[in-house]
Amino acid sequence: MRDKKKRSRIEIIADILAYLDKNGCSRPTRMATALNLSYDKLMDYVKELDQRGMIMTNMEGICITSRGLQFLREYTRWSNFAKSFGIDV
């Protein structure tokens, strides 16, 4: 059995936003596969992130917004800061 740490909620949100930042707008099935999430779980996060203005859905698929990019930048900065002190996030 592998000793793999389960991702936290915030890590999953950051992974979703980072995927969209890197790959552009995407369809949910492709995202679910790439992010190793079930489709239903991904859609729960999509609904929440859409309500918070971090992503939007249009004809191209699911896209990151400027608010989502801002969150991702701050999360990355904070995560790197914590890791510099030896704190796993």
Write up this protein.
It is a single chain. With 89 residues, the protein is mainly alpha-helical. It has one domain: Winged helix-like DNA-binding domain superfamily/Winged helix DNA-binding domain (Arc Repressor Mutant, subunit A, Orthogonal Bundle), CATH 1.10.10. It has helices spanning 9-23, 28-35, 39-51, 66-84; strands at residues 55-58, 61-64. The protein has a two-stranded antiparallel ribbon with strand order 1-2. A hairpin with a 2-residue loop joins strand 1 (55-58) and strand 2. Helix 1 crosses helix 4 (66-84).
Q: How are the SSEs ordered, and which strands pair?
A:
Blueprint: H1 9-23, H2 28-35, H3 39-51, E1 55-58, E2 61-64, H4 66-84
Antiparallel strand pairs: 1-2
SSE run:
HHHEEH
The CATH architecture assignment turns out to be Orthogonal Bundle
Q: What is the total domain count?
A: 1
CATH fold category name: Arc Repressor Mutant, subunit A
Q: How are strands sequenced across the largest beta sheet?
A: 1-2
Number of helices: 4
> What top-tier CATH class fits best?
Mainly Alpha
Described by strand count, sense and barrel closure, the largest sheet is: 2 strands, antiparallel
Helicity, in percent?
55-70%
Query: What average pLDDT do the residues reach?
Result: 94
The end-to-end distance, rounded to whole angstroms, is 23 Å
Shape: globular
CATH superfamily: Winged helix-like DNA-binding domain superfamily/Winged helix DNA-binding domain
Strand-pairing-aware structural class: mainly alpha
Strand content: 5-15%
**Strand tally:** 2
Low-pLDDT segments = none
Radius of gyration: 14 Å
